[in-house]
Amino acid sequence: MANSTYDIRTEILSLRSFYRGLWLREEGTRFLLEGKLGYCASYDRTANAFVLNPATDDAHNVIRDTYEIRIDFPSDFPSSFPSVREVGGRIDKIMKEKGITDERDLHVSPDNGIICLCVEPEKYLLFQNGVSVVDYLNRLVVPYFYGLSYFQKRGKWPWGFYSHRDLGVLESYLRNRNPADTKLVRIYFECLKEVKVKELFSTKGAIQRQCVCPCGKPAKFRNCHRDAFLGARLLKEDYDSISN
């Protein structure tokens, strides 16, 4: 998809066939999609199947809900991904209901309100063949808000929960590891930003079982954040093998 006014408008026209409450707004060279995001979706935990607009209300965990959102498109979309914010106060309400004091527990940045829809490398996995606006909403935005509604009703996320920041990246690598995909290995490695995590990758050999958890607690990494520890060991092994 080329980066032009015409292309974005064409995308939005196709989008509004599915999400009629969302509207395009232009601010100079910037494009924003805002309004009410309404959806109906279901999730079958056993089959790990998320379904938009299920054919029957007898499907697993059907939820209908609406959120007020704003999506900011970067000038180089689709090379870079949009940022998404909830602007109707619903997240604040859920935080108060659940006694949550850290926005990050709902995958929201405390600095700018941008929602973390998934860890960055998983965008590569989802959209290796390119991304459209509709695809972005269907595969990332709506699943996030479905998960948020599910959390509000049941007090847990339907498909689990990654830890914050680099630990979540390492947990994701454990789930999605594919050492034959060297580009994926590099993407995961380059996503690591925290000093304590990067120090683990700066030494020769495997990450030691006795090392302290980079989360800051005085506990062994393998006991404190086990999936992140296992992901870190595998990522270091795979990255070292393509770097040598």
In short:
With 244 residues, this protein is an alpha+beta fold. It contains nine helices and five strands; from the N terminus they run H-E-E-E-E-E-H-H-H-H-H-H-H-H. Helices cover 41% and strands 16% of the residues.
Q: Which descriptors would you attach to this protein?
A:
disordered N terminus; five-stranded antiparallel sheet; 244 residues; alpha+beta; 9 helices; 16% strand
Give an overview in words.
By secondary structure, this protein is an alpha+beta fold. Helices cover 41% and strands 16% of the residues. The protein has nine helices and five strands. It has helices spanning 5-15, 90-98, 120-126, 133-154, 165-176, 182-191, 195-200, 221-224, 226-243, and strands spanning 22-27, 30-44, 49-52, 63-73, 83-86. Strands 1, 2, 3, 4 and 5 form a five-stranded antiparallel sheet that branches. A hairpin with a 4-residue loop joins strand 2 and strand 3. Helix 3 runs antiparallel to helix 6.
